């Protein structure tokens, strides 16, 4: 059986090779940029006035002048004006170009205006104050956004400001989420005593939505022929299949054998971990390296117990999709155990934890062991899984371990 580290590495080695596509700026939120975006002008593009007030020549002020005749007004969005004579000023607004001849701004709060004259009421005026000089933030042709960035609010604001009406981004993978199991009924159905409503695919869809992936939902009954037939179609139509259930040792656990029959090559089945031991991962990539158009396709068959499904999603599937999209892995996060934990089997234990941020800067993980990998109501209080290493069985309060957040 594989360790967590080896299994993770295998998934990462078989990342998707997704093409790029061009999307409009309005549709680019959350997507992964695949081009560099440069400044078409300086930032700011002109000496930008930063306060509403008056624009003067500092030399006049330095020579003792305090009252200035108001020559006119320059609003934002108007062409640059000129301060024509000595001892005059222009009323000026935030966002306007600094007038030719002016070099200092006095706020309205610091002047009194009467009879078309402005009198400065303060004595600590500095040359160049309240001016945001051209090119102080970025210069024309500087690379502002680079390939591999995720497009969030700040990135899209910058893209808009340089006139980028479209952006080249990684195409989203087509992902199908497939629940399997005869005991599972639709959410809208009142289950019979031996049935339950399916929930795993809703969890998976919500988790994938954090990467901007809109996956489709499917359900397949525990019938080998039906499973084979439907998985064949889903494989043809998608880049990634994510199944839940049917991968363990049961009489109706047909998923691994059916995937093999469909030519999906198993890369691993079972990991030394709890929960999520029976995770199955495979690819249609040919061993000779020759891939058909639209290939390879990837299949994650997650164990059906809901807590196992969640753990496998956050520990393996989401990082896989992240890096396939061209994003770096999320930075590692750590927390300290709030109370001691004992876990005997020599396998990695993913402990559900509630995280608290303490006034002294520590992140504390409060264990929520729950009643096992079917107890998904326990996850309502959890913020993360803490990864407790396989080679240890006793973990002390205050010891720090890696955590895998389950909330974004
Ligand atoms: N003899 C053994 N039995 C089991 C082993 C084992 O190693 N030997 N492994 C156990 C572990 S660990 C897990 S995890 C489960 C995995 O089971 P499967 O992946 O085969 O999943 P199913 O048998 O189909 O279902 C398990 C459990 O999960 C519920 N389930 C399934 N899908 C959903 C869904 N979409 N929404 C909600 N709940 C779901 C299902 O009803 C079952 O209760 O196997 C152990 N057994
Ligand atoms: O690994 Mo299973 O996921 O323990 O219940
Ligand atoms: Mg089973």
Automatic annotation (TrEMBL):
Residues 176-323 form the MoaB/Mog domain. GO terms for cellular component: cytosol. The keyword RNA-binding does not apply. One of its GO terms (biological process) is Mo-molybdopterin cofactor biosynthetic process. It is an enzyme of class 2 (transferase). Catalyzes the insertion of molybdate into adenylated molybdopterin with the concomitant release of AMP. Belongs to the MoeA family. This is Molybdopterin molybdenumtransferase. It comes from Spirosoma radiotolerans. The lineage of its organism: Bacteria, Pseudomonadati, Bacteroidota, Cytophagia, Cytophagales.
């Amino acid at each position: 059986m594989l360790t967590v580290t080896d299994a993770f590495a295998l998934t990462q080695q078989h990342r998707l090779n997704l093409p790029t596509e061009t999307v409009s700026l309005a549709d680019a939120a959350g997507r992964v940029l695949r081009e560099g975006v440069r400044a078409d002008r300086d930032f700011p593009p002109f000496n930008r006035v930063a306060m509403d007030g008056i624009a003067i020549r500092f030399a006049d002020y330095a020579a003792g002048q305090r009252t200035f005749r108001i020559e006119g007004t320059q609003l934002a969005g108007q062409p640059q004006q000129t301060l024509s004579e000595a001892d005059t000023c222009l009323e000026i607004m935030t966002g306007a170009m600094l007038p030719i001849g002016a070099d200092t701004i006095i706020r309205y709060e610091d002047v009194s205006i009467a009879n078309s004259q402005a009198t400065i009421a303060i004595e600590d005026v500095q040359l160049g104050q309240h001016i945001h000089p051209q090119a102080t933030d970025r210069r024309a042709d500087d690379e502002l956004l680079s390939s591999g960035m995720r497009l969030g609010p700040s990135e899209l604001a910058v893209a808009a400001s340089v006139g980028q009406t479209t952006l080249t981004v990684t195409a989203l993978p087509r992902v199908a989420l497939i629940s399997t199991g005869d005991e599972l009924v639709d959410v809208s159905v009142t289950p019979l005593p031996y049935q339950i409503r399916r929930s795993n695919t809703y969890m998976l869809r919500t988790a994938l939505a954090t990467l901007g992936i809109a996956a489709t939902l499917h359900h397949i009954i525990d019938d080998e022929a039906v499973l084979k037939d439907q998985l064949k179609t889903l494989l043809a139509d998608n880049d990634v299949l994510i199944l839940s259930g049917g991968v363990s040792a049961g009489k109706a656990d047909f998923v691994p054998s059916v995937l093999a029959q469909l030519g999906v090559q198993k890369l691993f089945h079972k990991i030394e971990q709890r929960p999520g031991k029976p995770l199955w991962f495979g690819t249609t990539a040919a061993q000779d390296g020759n891939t058909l158009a639209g290939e390879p396709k990837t299949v994650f068959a997650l164990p059906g117990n809901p807590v196992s499904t969640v753990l496998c999603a956050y520990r393996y599937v989401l990082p896989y999709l992240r890096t396939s999209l061209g994003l770096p892995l999320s930075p590692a996060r750590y927390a300290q155990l709030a109370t001691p934990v004992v876990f005997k089997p020599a396998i990695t234990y993913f402990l559900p934890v509630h995280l608290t941020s303490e006034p002294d800067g520590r992140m504390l993980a409060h264990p929520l062991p729950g009643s096992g990998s079917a107890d998904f109501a326990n996850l309502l209080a959890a913020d993360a899984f803490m990864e407790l290493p396989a080679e240890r069985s006793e973990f002390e309060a205050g010891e720090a371990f890696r955590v895998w957040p389950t909330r974004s």
